[in-house]
Write a structure and sequence with these properties.
By secondary structure, this protein is of the alpha/beta class. It has 15 helices and twelve strands. The strands form two sheets. It has an eight-stranded mixed beta sheet with strand order 5-2-1-6-7-8-11-12, sandwiched between helices. Strands 4-3-10-9 form a four-stranded mixed beta sheet, with helices on one face. Strand 7, helix 5 and strand 8 form a beta-alpha-beta unit.
């Protein structure tokens, strides 16, 4: 077994002066009677605490009792060093704000060399223990590397929830390169959300617009065996049966009326489920309890069209806005953009029909309407891909248009427009003269100026020491 990439915090974090400290998460003073939650199979881990990850963590902490369901946030050492040992998350919505916590934390790096080199560690004391419930809300490009670094702590009794754009592409890559052995794979839940959120700083999130949280359990031989083909009840309905959880001391916030979830079947008992599915049952029930996020559980057959439609919407809006450097609304008003959207949707429709012949076809005209509807509804927003390009970060293009292009190549369907957009976005992020390149050169020039200034001061100091040495010799 490989070494764990998360190291325990062995010494308190050094304090920093107010002038050099960055803004930190707002944290109420700890109560002296607030004990450290016990470790157990009911602990949740969250990897990726950006806007959506923080939103999920906040609602989980407000809903689940801390004494029996502790939550651990995976944080990079640079972020963890600026936060208290047991941080809280602030959520702002409708002009008001509230906090949820406390959370445990582990310092984590996806690069083993960086992780083993040192840095701030975690505070749970269980960094080498198995992970039972893991929610992954990182960017699509980082999900495979992240789960690869945590593979030794995940097993067939674990459950992984994937919440990111291009989730289908991420799942395919994980099954192909990380969890190759079907007998050792964790359970997977795919999630997609239409909630709008953004962060001011780490663990300070704004819930900008209400939406839904759609969930689907990825089938496996074990899960299919729970409900044979001739069974009137699909296997995912077995996990709708509520678990008997202790009442939470923090009632979940309900800014909107709770969604009308169908009642659980009365003839199904949680005791009928095998112990290997205990973490999956707990995860699904925990997510369905987040009434403030309007969760809905679907069969994969019903969820897949939602995932594919969102995939195509992102394939159209993200690369075009990243290349043009514009807000989403510009695509709604430009005829040339409409023509490109039509071509992207036509190719995607043909590819998805060939790849999923057993699913109802997603027609190009319906996909175009979905793209324009989202572009109009989010007219003032800047896409995440545009923000990544401007910040010099890796984009999710390989899991969006790249996924459509690879799927098309596998099924003999040409995708010239999607392949071109993929290549252009990759060039946009690296070509000299691009914003990311300018930012990198700007940082290099700044460092060079700093080094030249330091060298000049060293030379001046040497000259002054030489002058003073000569004067002292003359005095003697």
């Amino acid at each position: 077994m490989r070494k764990s990439l998360c190291r325990r915090l062995r010494s308190p974090i050094p304090s920093r002066s107010a002038a050099s400290a960055r803004p930190t998460s707002p944290t109420p003073p700890p109560h002296p009677d607030d004990p450290m939650p016990p470790h157990g199979a009911s602990r949740f881990h969250i990897l990726g605490v950006g806007s959506i990850g923080s939103l999920l963590a906040y609602h989980l902490r407000r809903t689940l009792p801390p004494a029996t369901h502790p939550i651990t946030l995976f944080l990079r050492p640079t972020t963890a060093s600026d936060l208290p040992p047991r941080p809280h998350i602030r959520l702002s919505q409708h002009g008001t704000s509230s906090v949820a916590g406390p959370f445990d934390r582990e310092a984590w790096q996806p690069d083993p060399y960086l992780a083993l080199a040192g840095g701030a560690g975690g505070t749970t004391g269980f960094e080498d223990e198995p992970i039972r419930q893991l929610i992954v809300a990182t960017k699509a490009g980082g999900a495979t590397r992240a789960l690869g670094s945590l593979r030794d702590r995940l097993g067939p009794t674990s459950t992984v929830v994937l919440v990111q754009n291009g989730g289908l592409g991420v799942l395919d890559e994980l099954l192909r390169s990380v969890f190759v052995d079907p007998q050792k794979r964790p359970h997977f839940v795919l999630a997609t959300t239409t909630h709008g959120a953004f962060t001011h700083r780490p663990l300070d999130v704004v819930h900008a617009s209400q939406g839904t949280l759609d969930l689907g359990i990825v089938p496996s031989p074990l899960l299919r065996s729970l409900a044979p083909d001739d069974s009137p009840t699909p296997f995912h309905e077995l996990f709708r049966r509520p678990l008997l959880l202790p009442s939470s001391p923090h009632p979940p916030p309900q800014p909107h009326p709770p969604s009308a979830l169908p009642p659980p079947p009365t003839d199904l008992l949680s005791s009928h489920l095998p112990p290997e599915t205990a973490s999956l049952h707990l995860t699904v029930q925990a997510l369905l309890s987040l009434r403030g996020l309007s969760p809905q559980l679907h069969s994969m057959g019903a969820l897949q069209p939602k995932l594919l439609t969102k995939l195509v919407v992102n394939c159209a809006i993200n690369p075009l806005t990243a290349l043009m450097g514009c807000q989403n609304g510009a695509l709604y008003t430009q005829p040339a953009a409409h023509d490109l959207i039509r071509k992207v949707c036509t190719e995607a429709s043909n590819v998805l029909a060939a790849a999923h012949p057993d699913q109802p076809r997603l027609y190009s005209t319906a996909l175009q309407r979905s793209v324009l509807k989202v572009a109009r509804a989010t007219a003032d927003n800047y896409s995440s891909m545009l923000q990544d390009v401007r910040a010099g970060k890796h984009t999710e293009i390989e899991y969006l248009n790249g996924y459509i292009a690879r799927l098309g190549a596998a099924h003999g369907v040409p995708t010239p427009v999607n392949a071109m957009l993929r290549d252009l976005v990759k060039m946009r992020a690296t070509l000299p003269g691009g914003e990311a390149d300018a930012r990198r050169w700007g940082r290099m020039e700044y460092r060079e100026r700093q080094e030249r200034s330091a060298e000049r001061w060293r030379e001046r100091g040497e000259r002054l020491r030489a002058v003073w040495g000569d004067r002292r010799s003359g005095d003697r």
